[in-house]
Design a protein that fits this description.
By secondary structure, the chain is an alpha/beta fold. It has 2 domains: 96 residues, no CATH class; 301 residues, Glycoside hydrolase/deacetylase (TIM Barrel, Alpha-Beta Barrel). The protein is 44% helix and 16% strand. The chain is built from 14 helices and 16 strands. The strands form 4 sheets. Strands 2, 3, 7, 11, 12, 13, 14, 15 and 16 form a 9-stranded mixed sheet that branches. The longest helix has 62 residues. The structure holds zinc ion (ZN). The site of zinc ion has 5 residues, from loops.
Length: 414
C-alpha cells in the first residue's frame, strides 16, 4: 500500500515537473519569437529610416544638379531599393534626358556689401549720404531678391563653365545644358573689405561651431555674431534651402582688392593674413571663386587721363604679391569702377594671366575674343533700383516689391 502511494506521488511529481518544463520551454520559445519579431521590426524600421534619409539626400543632390552623385547614392545599398527609390531614379533620368542646350544671353549681377541697419544711415527725412544709398543693397532687399531670381528660372553658374581656353589656347563658349525652363546667372561680390563701419558687418569670422559667421556691431554698440551679415552668407543659406538655385554648388566671384584688406582683416600682420586665409578657404569650399579687383582700386591709377601703362603694371604686381597669397591664383579680373581698359593698358591685364575681364555694363555683353572674354555686369543696388528699375523688373525681379521702406527715393543723381 505504502509502495503504491510512493509510486503515485512519484508519477504526480514527474507530471508536475513535465508540465513545468513544458511551460518554461513554451514560454522561452514565445519570448524568443517575440524578441525576434521585435528585432525584425527594428531592422525594418532602421531600413526605412535609412531609406528615407537616403531619399532626402539623393533628392537634395538631384535638385542641385548633382545627377550622377544622386544616382550613386540611390544605388549604394541594394537593401534600400524599393518602388519609392526607383521612382526618384526614374525622375532623375527623365530630367537628364530632357536637358536642353542653353543658347540665350548670359546675365551677370553683382553686389557690394549689404547694409544691415539702414536706420543708421537714413534717419527720418534727413538727406541720405549718397554712397550708402547708391551702391549698396540692403540685407532685407537681397533676401527678397533671391526667391524672385529663382522663380524666374535663374541658376547660379560658374564663369569657368561658360568660357574656357580650348586645347589650342583659344577662348570659347562652352555648352550649357539645363532643364528647358532654367537660365544660367553669374553673380559677383565686389570690395569685400568690410571697412565701411557701423551699419555693415564688421568682419567675417569662423564661429565656435566652425561655421562662417559675421561679426556685427549694432547701432546700440553691441557686438553680435550673425549668419546672414553679408552677401556670401545670405546666399550660402539660400542655396542650402534651395539647392536648385545653384548649378553643382556654384555661388559667385569675390572681387578682392588690397587697399583696405579683406573681410575685415587688414593683412598687415602674419596673424591677420592667416585669419583672412581661413575665411577665404572656407568660402572656396562653399563654392566661391576669387578675382583680382586691382590692388589700389584707384581711379587715378586706372582711369585718369594721365594713367600710364606702368601704373597698371605696378598695381597688378602689388595684387599678385600681396593678394594672391591670400586668395590664390585666378584668371578673373574685375575692373575697379567697372570700366574697360583699352590697348596696351588692357594688355597688361591679359599678359598677367587674366583672360576673363568683368566690367559694369547694363547692356550685359559677353564678348569672346581669342585671348580674352569681356562680360558686362549689372549692380543690384540703389542706382539700378532707382534708375534702371525697368531693366531689373524685366529681367530679374519686381523692384517695388523688394525695396526697403527706408531707402531714400532721391539720390545724388537728382
Ligand atoms: Zn570695387
Amino acid at each position: 500500500m505504502k509502495k503504491t502511494k510512493s509510486i503515485v506521488i512519484l508519477i504526480l511529481l514527474l507530471l508536475i515537473t513535465g508540465v513545468n518544463v513544458y511551460i518554461v520551454l513554451e514560454y522561452r520559445q514565445y519570448a524568443l519569437l517575440a524578441e525576434l519579431e521585435k528585432t525584425n521590426a527594428e531592422i525594418m524600421r532602421n531600413i526605412e529610416y535609412e531609406r528615407q534619409e537616403m531619399l532626402i539626400e539623393a533628392a537634395h543632390l538631384f535638385k542641385g544638379f548633382f545627377y550622377e552623385e544622386a544616382l550613386t547614392r540611390l544605388n549604394e545599398n541594394p537593401n534600400l531599393i524599393n518602388d519609392e527609390t526607383r521612382a526618384l531614379e526614374a525622375e532623375i533620368h527623365e530630367e537628364i534626358n530632357n536637358l536642353v542646350l542653353y543658347e540665350g544671353p548670359i546675365r551677370h549681377v553683382f553686389l557690394h556689401s549689404l547694409v544691415l541697419y539702414p536706420e543708421f544711415f537714413f534717419p527720418g527725412e534727413s538727406p541720405a549720404p549718397s554712397g550708402y544709398s547708391d551702391y549698396f543693397a540692403f540685407q532685407s532687399e537681397f533676401k527678397a531678391i533671391l526667391p524672385q531670381l529663382l522663380e524666374r528660372g535663374y541658376v547660379l553658374y560658374s564663369i569657368h563653365d561658360i568660357v574656357r581656353l580650348n586645347e589650342n589656347g583659344v577662348m570659347e563658349r562652352l555648352d550649357i545644358y539645363l532643364p528647358p525652363d532654367r537660365m544660367p546667372l553669374v553673380l559677383s561680390k565686389d570690395d569685400p573689405t568690410l571697412h565701411y563701419g557701423i551699419g555693415f558687418a564688421n568682419r567675417f569670422i569662423i564661429d565656435e561651431d566652425g561655421e562662417l559667421a559675421t561679426e556685427v556691431i549694432t547701432p546700440e554698440g553691441e557686438t553680435i555674431i550673425t549668419h546672414d551679415g553679408d552677401v556670401q552668407l545670405v546666399l550660402d543659406q539660400f542655396v542650402r534651402e534651395n539647392p536648385e538655385f545653384s548649378f553643382r554648388g556654384v555661388k559667385g566671384i569675390i572681387a578682392a582688392t588690397g587697399y583696405m584688406g579683406i573681410f575685415g582683416y587688414d593683412l598687415q600682420t602674419e596673424e591677420s593674413r592667416r585669419d583672412a586665409i581661413a575665411i577665404v578657404e572656407r568660402m572656396k569650399e562653399n563654392g566661391w571663386l576669387f578675382a583680382n579687383h586691382s590692388y589700389s582700386h584707384s581711379r587715378s591709377v586706372f582711369w585718369s587721363p594721365n594713367t600710364q601703362v606702368s601704373d597698371i603694371e605696378r598695381d597688378t604686381q602689388l595684387w599678385r604679391e600681396i593678394m594672391m597669397p591670400i586668395v590664390g591664383e585666378t584668371n578673373i579680373f574685375i575692373s575697379p569702377h567697372g570700366f574697360l581698359l583699352q590697348g596696351a593698358k588692357r594688355d597688361v591685364i591679359i599678359n598677367n594671366g587674366f583672360d576673363i575681364y568683368l566690367m559694369v555694363d547694363f547692356s550685359q555683353p559677353l564678348i569672346i575674343h581669342d585671348n580674352l572674354v569681356i562680360m558686362g555686369r549689372i549692380e543690384l543696388g540703389g542706382i539700378s533700383m532707382m534708375w534702371f528699375s525697368n531693366l531689373l523688373n524685366r529681367y530679374f525681379f519686381d523692384v517695388e516689391s523688394v525695396i526697403h521702406p527706408q531707402r531714400p527715393r532721391s539720390t545724388t543723381w537728382d
